[in-house]
Amino acid sequence: MTKKTPAPVLVRHVIWFGWKLVILLSFALCFFALLRLHFSSENSASSSPNSFSPARARSQISRDNFHGPPKIAFLFLARLNLPLDFLWGSFFENADVANFSIYIHSAPGFVFDESTSRSHFLYNRQLTDSIQVVWGESSMIEAERLLLATALEDPANQRFVLLSDSCVPLYNFSYIYRYLMGSSRSFVDSFLDVKDGRYHPKMSPLIPKGKWRKGSQWISLVRSHAEVIVDDEIVLPVFKNFCKRRPPLDTSKGKLNIVKTSKATQLYPR
Ligand SMILES: *[C@@H]1O[C@H](CO)[C@@H](O)[C@H](O)[C@H]1NC(C)=O
Ligand SMILES: *[C@@H]1O[C@H](CO)[C@@H](O)[C@H](O)[C@H]1NC(C)=O
To answer: Looking at the Swiss-Prot or TrEMBL record, what is one Pfam family this protein matches (predicted)?
Structure first.
């Protein structure tokens, strides 16, 4: 009989050990969850280097908190200098200096001054934090985003016009000023190019195939749309992953080069 007494003690020990294990496990889970929360918030903050403080700073500026007339921001995306600077010079000559601002994204380190430009309007208007741009890749979008972000810092800038180094003004300043300010819309080129094979199926679902459009990047935006582009954290990362220039044609492959392209166009229903 006396030999049976240790049994309940043993059971109690097992139960107590089980409880300890459960408590320990839940502590470990809580700690793990905390760690995950910490790191995921840190990641989402670091993945948007362009949008953290400017966005907050901008939201603190009242939309109409500026003196003087609203400005058009002319945003030039240049390879180096602006070959048509003399044309732009006479264009800006007939403008009111209070009505516009100029920003230029050029090769890093390139300076617009007397030795590189024929128009004083362009002197020292280049961004100081410009990046190396590969034509046709996502770095081009990043350069445009830098231009928009810098121009957004001036609350007087109310229209944002992206221009290439080969764009020319077709109308005088006052006509363009009245035209853009007279409309509350952005002007964007967008069409469905059925022969285009640049859509990558892996872009889905963030960029659905049905929403894929082609268009020139030389656009005019109102302030709220410029903000959408600068604050975007969804579309640009997808472009960074999948927007790559096609490798150059390999002449030794002959027709094999073409097979790839025709497969891509088959993505579109006829
Ligand atoms: C600007 O162009 C418009 C339309 O072409 C014209 O009517 C107007 O007189 C011009 N303004 C100036 C200041 O040249
Ligand atoms: C400059 O802006 C003012 C106010 O918006 C406008 O009345 C004037 O016509 C503009 N000047 C030019 C040259 O467009």
So the answer is: Branch
Smallest CA-to-CA distance from 50 within 217, 233, 235 is with: 233
State the Cα–Cα distance between residues 13 and 268, nearest whole angstrom. Answer: 69
Q: Is 164 helix (H, G, I), strand (E, B) or coil?
A: strand
Single pTM value for the model: 0.73
pLDDT in tens, 47-72: 444 444 566 566 555 556 888 999 99
- In which region does residue 127 sit, left (phi positive, over 0), alpha (psi from -120 to 50) or beta (all else)? beta
d(CA 196, CA 203): 15
Task: Check pLDDT > 90 for residue 269.
Answer: no
CATH fold of 52-242 reads Spore Coat Polysaccharide Biosynthesis Protein SpsA; Chain A (3.90.550)
- For the Cβ of 156 lying below 6 angstroms from any atom of ligand 2, the answer is no
Q: Do 208 and 110 meet the contact criterion of CB atoms below 8 Å apart?
A: no
Is the minimum distance from the CB of 173 to ligand 2 under 6 angstroms? yes
Rounded Cα distance, 97 and 253, in Å: 57
- Report the nearest-CA residue for atom 1 of ligand 2: 99
The residue with greater pLDDT, 15 or 160, is 160
Count CA atoms within 13 Å of residue 240 on its CB side.
10
